[in-house]
Amino acid sequence: MTPQISRVDPPTKQGPQESEERIIIRGGKPLNGEVTISGAKNSVLKMMAAALLAPGVSVLRNVPNLTDVHMMADVIRTLGAKVTIGKDEVIIDASDITDFEAPYELVSQLRASFVVLGPLVARCHQAKVSLPGGCAIGERRIDLHERGLKSLGAEIWCEHGYVHATTDKLVGTRIYLDRPSNGATENIMLAAVLAEGQTIIENAAQDPEIANLADFCNAMGAKITGAGTYQIVIDGVKLSEMHGATIDTIPDRLEAGTFLFAVMATTGEIVLKNCNPHHLYSVISKMQEMGAEVSIYSPDIIKVKSGKLIKPVDCTTLPYPGYPTDLQAPLMSVLAVAEGTSIITETIYENRFMQVGELRRMGADISLTGNAAVIKGVPKLTGAEVKSSDLRAAAALVIAGLGAEGITEVTGLRHMDRGYENLEDKFRGLGADIYRR
Ligand code: EPU
Fold this sequence. Notes:
Elements: H1 3-6, H2 16-19, E1 23-26, E2 31-36, H3 41-50, E3 57-61, H4 67-78, E4 82-86, E5 89-93, E6 101-102, H5 104-107, H6 117-124, E7 126-130, H7 143-151, E8 155-159, E9 162-166, E10 174-176, H8 182-192, E11 198-202, H9 208-219, E12 223-225, E13 231-235, E14 246-248, H10 253-266, E15 268-273, H11 281-289, E16 293-297, E17 301-305, E18 314-316, H12 328-335, E19 341-345, H13 355-361, E20 365-369, E21 372-376, E22 385-387, H14 391-403, E23 407-411, H15 413-419, H16 423-429, E24 433-436
Parallel strand pairs: 2-15, 3-14, 6-7, 10-11, 18-19, 22-23
Antiparallel strand pairs: 1-23, 1-24, 3-5, 4-5, 7-9, 8-9, 11-13, 12-13, 15-17, 16-17, 19-21, 20-21
C-alpha cells in the first residue's frame, strides 16, 4: 500500500493536521446515476433581502440548506424580520422593520447581504450597511450600487466603514450601468420598486437569478418587466400595495455545472434532475466542444456522458449569458487532463485563479499570464492535500480529486459549505468514493 492510500484509514491519534475538517476522495471512480439539483444560492439570498420590501409573511421554497442562507437570516433578523428556516423553505415575516443598520460582523462574512441596502432605503428611507470589505477573488467594487441609488434620489456617503443612505423619497429615472453588475442591478431594482414613477435600468445583469428575484417582487405587488434582459423597467408602487408572497427558487445552475464537469473528469453517465438547461447553454456548448455527449430533456433534465478523450478548448468568462466566472475553476480541473493546450481568460474578477497553485500540486501544468491561464493537458492528475480559497475553487478541487489517481484531501471546507448542499453525499450517490472527516 502506498503512503498516499494509507491516509484514508482513520488516524490513530489526532494531531493538528487532522483537526481541520476535510473531504477525502479516492479518485478514479466513474460517476453514474441521477442527482437532484438544489435551489440557487444566488437567488435565494437576494430574495431574502427583497422580502424586507413588504409588510407580511413571505415563503421561499426550494431553498438549499447552506451556511450562507443561515447567515442571511441573521442579517435580516437584525433588521427586525422574523425568519424561520424549515426543510427546503424559509419563512420571513417582515411586518416590522425595527432597525436599518446591517453591521460589519455580519456583512463582512456574507457579501451578498449588501443587497439589503436597496430594500432598506426604499422602505425605511434610511440605511446604514457595512462595506463588505476584502475578498479573495477580486476587488468587488460597489460604485455602481452607489451611483444608481444616488440617481434615484438617495443621499449616499461612506463613513467609518459603512455606507449610509437617506432620502425623503426615491424618484424613478433611467440608469445606465457601466458594466452589468449583478449586485448593482439587484440593489437598484429593489430600491426602485417603491420609488415614485418609472425606473429603467440599462445594461442590467441578465442572469436568471435576477429574473427570479423580479418574479418574487412582482408576486409581492411590484411592477417589474424585462428582468433577465439588459433593460429592466420598474414602475414604482406604494408600500400599501406590497404584501408577502410565495415563490419557488430556481435551480442552481452553478451546482448543475459542477456535476456536469465532474462527470467529464471521471468518465461515466449521469442525469441531472431539477435543473434548467436554458440557464446552462454556454456551459453545455463548451462541454460539447470538449467531447461530452449532452442530451436535454426539457424542461428540467440533462443527461451527460463523458467522451473518451477531453479535447482542449479556449474559454473567456463573461457576464450572463456568456460563460460564467463561477464555473471557470471547475472547467480548469477538467482541462488539466485534456489532450492538448487550452486557454482560459478571466474577465470578471482580477484574482480568480486561486485554484491554480493547488491543481499544480496535483500535477497540473498551468501557467498564468495576466488574466489568462494556459493549461497544458497532462495524462493524469495525482491525489494530494489541497486547500480551497473560495467556493468555486473548492468545487474545482473536489472535481480534480474525483478524477485523480490516488487520494486527495480537500480542506477549507467552510467555503464549500457556503454554496453546495450535501456535495459529498450527492457525489457518493453517484458512485464516488468520497467522505468528510
Ligand atoms: N463591479 C464594479 N462595481 C460595482 C459592482 C461590481 O466594478 O459597483 C465589478 C466587480 O468588482 C466584479 C464584477 O463587477 O469584478 C462583477 O460583479 P457583480 O456585481 O456582478 O458580482 P456580485 O453581485 O458581487 C454575484 C455572485 C457571484 C458571481 C458574480 C458574477 C452572488 C451572491 N454572488 O456577485 O457569485 O461570481 O455575481 O456573476 O450573487 C459565487 O457564487 O461563488 C459568487 C462569487
